[in-house]
Amino acid sequence: MAKxxxxxxxxxxxxxxxxxxxxxxxxxxxxxQVILTEKELLEDGFGDHPFYHCLVAEVSKxxxxxxxxxxxxxxxxxxxxxxxxxxxxxxxDFFVMxxxxxxxxxxxxxxxxxxxxxxxxxxxxxxxxxxxNTESIEFYxxxxxxxxxxxxxxxxxxxxxxxLLKMTKK
Length: 170
Description:
By secondary structure, the protein is an alpha+beta fold. It has a 5-stranded mixed beta sheet with strand order 1-2-3-4-5. The relative contact order is 0.13.
């Protein structure tokens, strides 16, 4: 069993966070869509008014990856507001490297996020999961997650930067 610690991310973790974001994107076959830079991650997450919060899972040097990495998982989240139910913790990304799965790291991350949501009086934690990622879907369902896309019929939409710019010119 890999011993690990779960801690709040620090500015020194930005390169590891970006590496894990790219690992997750590769798993989702969307690696080319990651355009974020370390500089943006640093400015957006560690300034006076951070846009996101992040937890990292770290193992000792003895348990590091073959590439020498000790940060082996992360969860990126932020707080938002729903006019029907109030404060929400939105889990944006959550990833544990495959070779470190099955040791309770993901469960501990989710437990810590749940504690954070309760402590900050959030009504709920929301997140999206790729439809093909049945392993993650089952992981969340075992912990009480409801699939709103099938139960309530909600659809996720996005307006990209180019279209946002077009709308500002109208």
